[in-house]
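Build the 3D complex.
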Amino acid sequence: MSKGLAFDKLREILLEKDWEEREEFAQKLNDLDDQLNSRNRLQEKIQPILDNEREDLRAKFPELFGPQITESIRKQISESQDEVVEALYPILGRMIKKYITSEIEKLSEKVDEQMKLAFSWEAWKMRIKAWFTGTPQKDLIISKLIEPKIEEIFIVEKQSGMLLGSFSKNHSVDQDMIAAMLTAIKTFVEDAFKGETQELDSIDYDNYKIVIKNFKSFFIAVVTSGGMSMAFRDKLDDTLLDFAEKVLKKAKDGDDEVKQESITSGLEEYFDNFDKHE
Amino acid sequence: MNKKVILVGHFGVGKTSLVQQFVYSKFSEKYLTTIGVKIDKKVVEFDGHQMTLLIWDIAGETEQNSVSKSYKLGSHGIIYVFDLTRPSTYENLSGQVEYLKTLLPNAPIQVLGNKKDLLSEEELSSITETIDFPFKTTSAKTGEYVEDAFIDLSKAML
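Done.
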C-alpha cells in the first residue's frame, strides 16, 4: 500500500464520525434557516408563546401599569384643566339638562294635577282652609307639591353641646358629634355678630333646612327636607312648644340616661307620624 | 355617660396633635393652625366605667381671657397645654389656670407640658424647676402620657 493511500485510509477511519456529525449539523442548520426565513413557519412556532404572553399581560395590566396611568392622567388633568373642562362641559351640560328636564316634567305633572283640581271640592276646601288659617293659598299648594319632611331632630344642651335626646328616620350620622358641631356653629355665628339676645334660628343647605328653636338652657334643631310652607312651620313650632312644655319639663330632673330615654321616646311619640298628618 | 372636654393653651403647643394621638393614634410633623374649634369623640373605659368624651380642641390663644368664652362654657373637664420648649407659653401658667377655674369652677383641670421628646433629661429637669405649678409632661409624638392624661381627667370628672 502506497504511503498516500495508507494516509487516506487512516484519515477515513479517524474522521468518519466527525463527517457524519458535520453532515447532521449542516442538515439542522438548513432546517433552521428554512424555518427562520419562512414567515408562516416562524409564526406557527412563535404565535402560541406570544398569545400566552399577551394573555398574561392583559391579566396583570392594571397591577403593572395602573399607578403610572393614574399618575399620568392626574398630571394631564392638572396641566390642562381648561381642555378637560372644555371636553367635559358638553357631557355634564347634557346630564344636568336631562336631570332638570325630568324634574320639570315631574313638577309640571303635579301642577297639572293641581290645575285639574282647581275647581274641585279639594280646591274649595284648600281656599277655605287658607282663608281660615291665614296661610297663603300658594303655600298650601307648594307644600302639596314638594311635601316637607322631618329627617332628624336633636335636643341639645345649650352651653355644653351635649345631646339630650334625638329622633332620626335613618340614624346615618353620629348624633353626639352633630349636636356638638351644631352648638359650635351656633356659638360662632352668635359670637361673630355679637348679638347679645339674638340667636341663630335656621341653617339652609341644599334641599335641607335646619330649624332651630331656642329655649333657655337647650335648643331643638329640626332637620327638614322639601318645601317649608308657613303652615308646616306653624305646626312644627306649635308641636315643639308643646313637646318642650310637656316632655322636656318633666324630663329635667333625673339622671342623664333616664333623661335621654324619656326625651327620645317623647320625640318618637310626637314626631313619628308628624309628616303623615300634614 | 357623655362629657365635654376642652383643650386650651397658646397656639402651636400641640393641642391638636395630642387629640390626634389620643383619638387616632397618629402624629404628623406638619403644623396646621386650628380655626375656631375642632370636635372629636372617643369612648374611654376605666375601672369598669365607660365614658364618651366630646373633645373640643379650641384654637390657640395667648391669653385665656382675651377671646370669647362661649366654646368653653358647659365643659366638664379642661386640659391646659403648654410647650416645654417655649417659655412664653408657660410664663403665666398659674394666672391662666386660675382664670379657667373661675370660669368653670366644677371642671377638673389637667395641665400638660407637651413636646417632651424635644428635650434631653437635663434640659427637662432644669425647665421643670423653673415652673412653679403642678403639671405632667407629655409627648404627642411618642404618645407618652397622652392616653393616661385623658383617663386621669375622666376619672376626675366621674
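Chain B is about 25% helix and 25% strand.
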